[in-house]
Design goal:
CATH class of the largest domain: Alpha Beta
Number of domains: 3
Structural class: alpha+beta
Order of helices and strands: EHHEEEHHEEHHEEEEEEHEHEHEHH
CATH architecture of the largest domain: 3-Layer(aba) Sandwich
Largest sheet: 6 strands, antiparallel
Number of helices: 11
CATH topology of the largest domain: Dna Topoisomerase Vi A Subunit, Chain: A, domain 2
Radius of gyration: 23 Å
Helix content: 25-40%
Shape: globular
Strand content: 15-25%
Distance between the termini: 60 Å
């Protein structure tokens, strides 16, 4: 069969096959909407991925890396193909007949379209997170002090110890000796944006209702300076803040910030403004040297090339991030590493 069908576009694809069907076909582990499952992109023991209805369509979120994908983007990432190639692959696999038609023989078995109407899902939206603050415990401060965070820094950065928390009205009580914290951000969209952090848990260490406008530690950042480090986490950004507070760089003004999640980048609109206020911006993401795909370095390279920024990371066989490195070897040793990298 030869000729032209309707134009091969995302809109025409999604008018013939649903996002749900696309995810079901290309995700090996996805079984049910709103149920956690093992990542398609990396090895893990605890399910950290979920597909949920967000803003009118299904969204694949990997909470382990912070990456999210709509259906077409997921196919691109899963198969390692370009946008046009992903459209063509879906067109072929589902026999949609879009674009130029050339009596092709698909590599994959043709996927039968679902009978009837695709399932309807309720938009998940953002959760309402509430918490009850408590004074910092001795264990709280010992934990944060080991990463060179002082009680004053925690207070300035709106990091609170909590005794209770609520998720969409359901209450949980924190054990008296458990480490439990809230990162307070700001009101947006009728909700207080915050993250709840439980460092000692194996599962569900994080709960959050934040969006991609979040940039961590920006509220304690100087308006302008010499070197701004973009790190993977708030805890890591605090290491650069502490070095500035201790005067380690003498006449050089430095600071650290972090995006909403590991693997993502700071909000682009904010970044473009920061470029005009800081003489140099540097990426210092994790070095996941013990993982096959090393997502920290992969993302450092990606964002470094996209925004033309230098990127550094800890050496192999050492703790993967600034805070763990400083905890093990001391902040003075991390300062020496930073100086060495900057002088290269």
């Amino acid at each position: 069969m030869y000729g032209f069908g309707e134009e091969l576009t995302k809109e025409n694809i999604l008018s013939k096959v649903s996002s749900y069907e696309i995810f079901k076909h290309y995700s090996d582990n996805f079984k049910e909407v709103n149920k956690h499952f093992i990542s398609d992109f990396r090895k893990e023991d605890n399910p950290s991925c979920c597909i949920a209805q967000i803003k009118g369509d299904l969204l694949y979120t990997d909470f382990g890396t912070g990456q999210s994908y709509r259906s077409i983007a997921f196919v691109m990432a899963k198969l390692g193909v370009s946008y046009p190639e992903a459209l063509q692959q879906i067109n072929t696999d589902f026999q949609l007949g879009l674009g130029y038609i050339l009596d092709f023989k698909p590599d994959k078995v043709v996927v039968p379209k679902m009978e009837g109407v695709a399932p309807k899902f309720q938009d998940k939206g953002f959760s309402i997170l509430k918490k009850k603050k408590r004074p910092f415990t001795k264990r709280d401060l010992e934990y944060w002090n080991s990463f060179y965070w002082t009680e004053w820094m925690l207070t300035e950065a709106k990091t609170e110890s909590i005794s209770h928390y609520w998720i969409n009205g359901n209450m949980w009580v924190v054990k008296p000796d458990e480490l439990a914290f809230s990162y307070e951000y700001y009101w947006h969209g009728g909700r207080m944006q915050r993250k709840l952090y439980f460092p000692e848990r194996d599962k569900f260490k994080w709960f959050s209702n934040v969006d991609n406008t979040i940039c961590q530690l920006v509220d304690v950042m100087p308006k302008m300076g010499d070197i701004l480090f973009i790190t993977s986490s708030k805890k890591d950004a605090g290491i650069f803040w502490r070095m500035q507070l201790d005067g380690m760089f003498q006449d050089t003004v430095i600071h650290g910030v972090a995006p909403n999640t590991e693997g993502s980048f700071v909000p682009e609109a904010w970044f473009l403004k920061a470029q005009n206020r800081w003489k140099k911006i540097v990426i210092w993401y994790n070095n996941d040297w013990d993982k096959d795909n090393n997502p920290g370095v992969t993302n450092a390279i990606k964002y470094g090339e996209k925004y033309n920024l230098p990127y550094f990371y800890n050496p192999d066989e050492t703790p993967k991030d600034p805070s763990d490195f400083s905890k093990k070897y001391g902040i003075e040793e991390f300062y020496k590493l930073v100086k060495l990298k900057l002088d290269e």
